[in-house]
Write the structure tokens for this entry.
Amino acid sequence: MATATSQTLRFPSVSASASLSLSSKLPLSSAFSVSLRPRRRPLLLLVSAALDAKPTVLVAEKLGEAGLKLLKDFANVDCSYNLSPEELCTKISLCDALIVRSGTKVTREVFESSAGRLKVVGRAGVGIDNVDLAAATEHGCLVVNAPTANTVAAAEHGIALLAAMARNVAQADASVKAGKWQRSKYVGVSLVGKTLAVLGFGKVGSEVARRAKGLGMNVIAHDPYAAADRARAIGVELVSFDEAICSADFISLHMPLTAATSKILNDETFAKMKKGVRIVNVARGGVIDEDALVRALDSGIVAQAALDVFTEEPPPKDSKLIMHELVTATPHLGASTMEAQEGVAIEIAEAVVGALNGELAATAVNAPMVPSEVLTELKPFVDLAEKLGRLAVQLVAGGSGVKTVKVTYATARAPDDLDTRLLRAMITKGLIEPISSVFVNLVNADFTAKQRGVRITEERVILDGSPENPLEFIQVQIANVESRFASAISDSGEIKVEGRVKDGIPHLTKVGSFEVDVSLEGSIILCRQVDQPGMIGKVGSILGEENVNVSFMSVGRIAPRKQAVMAIGVDEQPSKDSLKRIGEVPAVEEFVFLKL
Ligand SMILES: NC(=O)c1ccc[n+]([C@@H]2O[C@H](COP(=O)([O-])OP(=O)(O)OC[C@H]3O[C@@H](n4cnc5c(N)ncnc54)[C@H](O)[C@@H]3O)[C@@H](O)[C@H]2O)c1
Ligand SMILES: O=C(O)[C@H](O)COP(=O)(O)O
């Protein structure tokens, strides 16, 4: 089939109702603005449509006042601390957001119990090992954290433990309070000139390193993902894991708890250490095999340990590790300064409010971060992407099964300059939501597509011209399916729809091999007909008789008096009877009604 030309008619109205010009149409979603008020159509639909009322935020652990105030200005805030897992699961079905620290386990059951209402989990701190990220993602729930506000507090606590351990401060204090005066028992070791190995050279690790340098220590670090020049800039050498642990007098742990770091200090690694090494842990208890540490302390390999974090928190009362006289323990106090808690509370409240407003938080943990200027620029294309997905899937004939989707982006931009993750997510949303009960957003789009066996490939067509406009057009093709509207099948055999943004409004510009031009608002009727005079009038008057407002009409044809595809934008859904009558117009060969 040859590619057709298109002829566009702007239809003020063919119905009996008042005319509707383009400029008087509904505005596009205002999802990209930063107002703190709930809106009807947030960009990523993180909030359910029912959220015209205030959302509800459950704060399950103590949060600084400034953060609570921010939340209360925007939402109903339920501060319920020390909930049992069962109580949390019961409450969560009434909440749109949940804020926790490290003391609450946000398990798969929590997401399941929320029955889709929970849209954001805010972790008021760094570590997200207490949140089941896979379950959050599967349920389309965004997880955000507050990664920066407690860095200094944690680093200061690490240094406090280092010095207190070296000088037996806690043990000596307890001894004095017990009425003893044991000066020779509590002779310590000096820090100056000693080698400190920092394991995990991220935010906290690098701040610990900086402070330890100030104490005259020789600092080395191991971090497979850290940049050597950043370490060098503060006089720290990055070394291998074995070199770090073998040469250190002190080891300070600052990596996240992951499958790779779990029990990274164990019998085998303790055996490689210098006899008399001292360990500080303000990261996560699980990075140390705690039974192995007790053995290493008993055998003298490890002279002392200072621990703020434990595998089980609070640890069992009879824990051999806690009771060990060579261990200094604090109850996960790393982030607990007044300053850090106020900072964390504000950081997380802003992130949660932003997410409930449909914005993407810069601290999203389970979704790509898309900077706000990129969001603003892509706004009309995001809308276009979703609508093309929605149209394409409605063109598939029942029983065909969508498996292979190809998306083509035509752009004058260099690949690095166009982030398509958001567009792909919205195409996925458009493809999947009309045919399932699944709620799709940027968080779970890839997961949902994979789970449903839909393979989405992306291709860029690089165009000459000005890269000012992010995209010329987006094309969505569904392969290996039959169509309810045969004309939507392109020459190469796929269902094909293509769209562009014109004056900020998404337009459908191609169906199969036919060029059309209809603004993607309201719904669309596609008709294939034998091109002849009077067709627009005939179809228009059927719709007009029923007071269905036509916003846009466009005819794409192969050649005069041959086949043509007419695309009609309608504001209301025509009745079955009107659609039947359109189908009965003699020149109409096939037609389809598509909801946007
Ligand atoms: N005790 C507390 O109250 C407290 C407070 C803040 C942070 N933390 C914990 O401290 C840790 C670090 O926090 P952060 O803010 O510095 O995080 P971060 O993400 O900035 O730094 C973590 C670093 O660990 C590195 N890393 C990852 N895998 C590693 C491996 N196998 N070996 C060595 N390094 C590895 C990463 O590359 C990264 O540079 C986290 O576990 C966090 O939960 C605890
Ligand atoms: O990961 C963190 O941010 C720290 O471990 C702090 O945890 P907390 O918020 O429970 O004090």
Q: What stands out?
A: The first strand starts at residue 5 and ends at 9.
